[in-house]
Design goal:
A 5-stranded parallel β-sheet has the order 4-3-2-1-5, with helices on both faces. α3 links the parallel β3 and β4. α1 runs parallel beside α2. By secondary structure, the protein is an alpha/beta fold. The chain has one domain: Hypothetical Protein Ychn, Chain: A, CATH 3.40.1260.10. Helix content is 34%, strand content 19%.
């Protein structure tokens, strides 16, 4: 893709430990996109916001996949972006101080902007 902007994948994650597969797959796909030199942004909504809660990912493991903590660490170290829905955090009484670094708290306008700028969007 010389001379072109990289493709951008936005992945919206709406599940946590109640569905380990759907909590894990966003980071499997996010890591895959990064390995393919694509930009990758995972946006956590609904119960998915728990995945950014410090220590929470240690309790989520989908059969057949590496532990979520490993996938999440790899994703962030490789430059993946992690955004978390502000109203979803407020509804679950999660404070910004309880989130992992470098999670960014966003609201609707930022979400729509990310979707509009993406090459592709996937929701889990």
């Amino acid at each position: 893709m010389a001379g072109q902007d990289p493709q951008k994948l936005v992945i919206i994650a709406t599940h946590a430990e109640e569905n380990p597969d759907k909590a894990t797959l966003p980071f499997v796909m996010g890591n895959t996109a990064l390995a393919m030199d694509m930009d990758s942004t995972v946006i956590l909504q609904s119960t998915g916001v728990y995945l950014a809660y410090r220590g929470y990912a240690e309790h989520v493991h989908a059969a057949g996949f590496p532990p979520l903590t490993e996938l999440l660490a790899t994703y962030l170290e490789a430059g993946g972006k992690l955004m978390v829905c502000s109203p979803c955090l407020e509804a679950r009484k999660i404070t910004p101080e309880e989130l992992i670094e470098p999670a960014v708290i966003i609201a609707g306008a930022t979400l729509i902007g990310e979707i509009a700028s993406a090459t592709n969007v996937v929701t889990y």
